[in-house]
Specification:
Layout (H helix, E strand, L loop, with lengths): L3 E5 L2 H11 L3 E5 L5 E2 L7 E2 L5 E2 L2 E2 L4 H13 L2 E4 L5 H13 L17 H7 L8 H28 L8 H19 L4 E11 L2 E10 L2 E2 L5 H10 L4 E14 L7 H12 L3 H13 L1 E2 L7 E2 L14 H15 L32 H4 L5 H17 L4 E12 L2 E12 L29 E13 L8 H11 L7 H10 L3 E4 L2 E4 L1 H13 L6 H15 L5 H22 L8 E6 L6 E7 L2 E6 L8 E2 L3 E6 L7 E6 L5 E5 L8 E2 L2 E6 L6 E6 L3 E6 L5 E5 L1
Parallel strand pairs: 1-2, 1-7
Antiparallel strand pairs: 3-6, 4-5, 8-9, 8-16, 9-10, 9-15, 11-14, 11-16, 12-13, 14-15, 17-18, 19-20, 20-21, 21-22, 23-24, 24-25, 25-26, 27-28, 28-29, 29-30
């Protein structure tokens, strides 16, 4: 038997670390937590300083038995769970389950799974950090007190199976508030005037700015006509030319939040998928014997810090100088620590910048490669020199009516040679060059166009926008973003429409109840303060029992009031206007986990159910009788099929369109691309593109 037992969380990590440490070490996996609060009861003694009752998690008995057996034979035990609050809590639970003294140097942490980092960490083991454990325990108990007290109320008053979590409820409330903003939005009219100018056979565009040097808005057509009537001919004089050099700095390396946002924008990944693949890259990929076998490719992926180690900076500096030259070297600063950021780890970066994505493309899966490439490029760009842009603003006058034209040209690409950060609005960052213009000369306006616009409501939240807003408001922490978004969808409180969150009727009902009886639960400021208080426990500045007691005393009063005053809400079934084909009773609309569906009103005698099908206005190309409808797979992915299924089995992942192919009369379908929708024929090579 080996002298030392090391316990990590996953088998993949165990295999990698065991190879790094050598024969004296046995490395086993706990598969996450081995103990937790019981599912069948509250598990928190509110009369005894909120002491938790921990039990072995169902299904973990054999794992724990195996760990105990190995622990008895080992001279020393090291607990090497992930380097965060959750990992510290797992280590603490393992210490108690295996009778390891948590005051001894039994805890080992590393931010990256590389041979150097792992071996170095075992030279400096430490005690289990009780403050970290207390902070995690406080979060777990708070969430249990909220969930296990409010949920039974919802079952009794609304519907079985409902629940209300602390952070999740705030996220749903934000989505509902945004939907209400959109519904109540009243568009306001405004106008703009653009002009196409001509100078020495070169054209450029300018826009109306104002009169007599003062900026002027154009709220209606009358104001526009007044400006147009003031213009004298089509000749404009160049009144002023402002030129300046501007520096554009690279984005910081990824935090958990910014990685989830950028992966959504550029790779179309959901937050859950991003974290799953990042975990794989962190725990290790087998690169083959020549490349050192299993290697962790990125640093720990749950972080809110942009710090980078000196070793990583130096390696990046050498790579940049060798590949691009000294003039591409940057001077990286981590920047000011964001309020509420724990700053416990480095930013998310490649463990070695020398492993460029191209060299790993044949080894990694497609998704692993794309995410690794994103992390690698972002980190390398963050260590590079700023881009230098030449900007130019031209003031053009006609009878004191001022138009302005702006241009920007990249003079030195700097970090932009590698990477440019994505945006939520998909604006393209293209060069907009203006011709050389001299003050006092004239240009001609070949075309002057008035344009009517209307203000737009705020957009619905995408996953990226919601994560960013949660981070800005201090709701949750890096480890909570992806699980929160997943939970609110699984519970049926929100659905996705065109990759944007829409609240369901069920979600709205639940949040209305919580708002009435437990307003603090969905108060953004209250939730953000709670997160800061949990950070204070971690820092040793606050006692966890006092924090929970301060919350629970008032919460319990509200709970008792809700028990007495909350009225039973009946979600009535709406008649669908069609009869059940199995028993003849009327079909009704029912609310389910994923929204509404059709069901027989004769339930439980008749259990006939149907999805609500959305017709897309296309006749089935296979049977020529049915209509093509929108359906959803088990993984909630939209596809298209014939409404006569199973009589007709036509299906398509791509949306069919009603007109035939002009080349062969075959079926045309829409294929979504990043910036455009491509229409193509399923039978021949015909294609056409339109902007999304």
């Amino acid at each position: 038997m080996s002298d030392y037992l090391v316990i990590v969380e996953s088998p993949a990590k165990a295999k990698t670390i065991e190879r790094y440490l050598g024969k004296k070490y046995t490395v086993k996996a706990s598969m996450g937590h081995v103990r937790d609060l019981p599912k069948s009861q509250m598990g928190v003694d509110v009369d005894n300083e909120y002491q938790p009752k921990y039990i072995t998690i169902r299904g973990k008995g054999d794992i724990l038995k195996d760990l105990k057996k190995a622990a008895k034979k080992a001279k020393r035990i090291y607990l090497a769970a992930d380097p965060d609050r959750e990992g510290e809590a797992i280590a603490w639970h393992l210490a108690h389950a295996l009778n390891v003294d948590d005051q001894t140097d039994c805890r080992v942490v590393f931010n990256e799974i590389t041979k150097e980092s792992v071996k170095a960490s075992f030279k400096h083991p430490r005690k289990i950090n009780e403050n970290l454990v207390d902070a995690q325990q406080a979060r777990r108990i708070l969430d249990r007190l909220v969930g296990y007290n409010i949920s039974p109320l919802l079952w009794k008053k609304v519907k079985k199976g409902l629940s209300a979590g602390r952070v999740q409820s705030v996220a749903v409330k934000m989505i509902i508030d945004r939907e209400n903003e959109i519904k109540n939005f009243k568009p306001e009219e405004y106008w703009s005037i653009t002009a196409d100018f001509l100078k020495d056979q070169e054209t450029f565009e300018g826009s109306f700015y104002g009169i007599d040097g003062k900026k002027q808005d154009l709220p209606n057509r009358e104001e526009v006509d007044a400006i147009l009537n003031k213009l004298q001919g089509d000749t404009f004089s160049v009144d002023k030319v402002n030129k300046r050099e501007r520096k554009k700095n690279p984005a910081k390396p990824f935090t958990t939040s910014s990685l989830q946002q950028e992966a959504a924008r550029k790779l179309n990944f959901r937050a859950k998928k991003t974290m799953m693949i990042a975990q794989q890259l962190y725990e290790g990929i087998d690169l083959g014997k020549k490349a050192g076998g299993i290697q962790g490719l990125v640093t720990y992926m749950r972080t809110d810090s942009t710090r980078v180690s000196d070793t990583a900076k130096q390696e990046a500096k050498g790579y940049i100088e060798e590949q691009y030259g000294k003039n591409y070297l940057g001077f990286y600063k981590a920047g000011k620590k964001q309020e509420g950021a724990q700053d416990a780890h480095e930013a998310i970066r490649p463990t070695s910048v020398l492993r460029d994505p191209k060299s790993l493309k044949s080894i990694l899966s497609r998704d692993q490669y794309r995410l690794y490439k994103l992390i690698w490029e972002r980190f390398l760009a963050s260590q590079m020199a700023p881009a230098i842009l030449d900007t130019m603003t031209v003031h053009l006058l006609n009878n004191n009516v001022e138009f302005r034209a702006t241009g920007s040209v990249v003079k030195f690409k700097g970090f932009m040679k590698i990477y440019v950060e994505g945006t939520d609005d998909d604006k393209k960052t293209e060069d907009k060059r203006l011709p050389e213009l001299v003050e006092g000369t004239d240009v001609k306006a070949s075309k002057i166009s008035p344009n009517q616009h209307f203000t737009q409501p705020p957009p619905r939240y995408t996953e990226a926008r919601l994560v960013r807003t949660m981070e800005e408001k201090g709701i949750g922490r890096p480890s909570t973003y992806a699980p929160t978004l997943d939970t609110i969808q699984r519970r049926g409180y929100v659905s996705m429409d065109n990759k944007r969150f829409v609240p369901t009727e069920l979600g709205t009902i639940v949040i209305d109840i919580v708002q009435e009886f437990f307003p603090e639960i969905i108060n953004v400021d209250f939730t953000a303060k709670m997160e800061n208080d949990l950070d204070s426990i971690e820092d040793g500045d606050m006692n966890w029992v006092k924090l929970i007691d301060h919350f629970y005393v008032d919460f319990n009063k509200r709970l008792q009031k809700a028990e007495q005053e909350m009225e039973k809400i009946e979600i009535k079934d709406e008649p669908a206007g069609i009869d059940c084909e199995k028993c003849g009773h009327e079909m009704v609309y029912k609310m389910g986990r994923y929204g509404q569906f059709l069901a027989c009103s004769n339930f439980p005698d008749c259990r006939n159910t149907k999805p609500i099908l959305k017709k897309i206005g296309v006749t089935c190309p296979k049977c020529k009788q049915g209509d093509v409808v929108e359906r959803k797979s088990k993984k909630r992915r939209i596809f298209y099929g014939c409404d006569r299924f199973p009589e007709c089995d036509f299906v398509s992942w791509d949306k069919p369109i009603s007109r035939p192919c002009p080349k062969c009369s075959g079926l045309l379908v829409e294929k979504k691309r990043k910036k455009e929708t491509q229409v193509q024929c399923t039978s021949c090579s015909y294609k056409e593109s339109t902007q999304s």
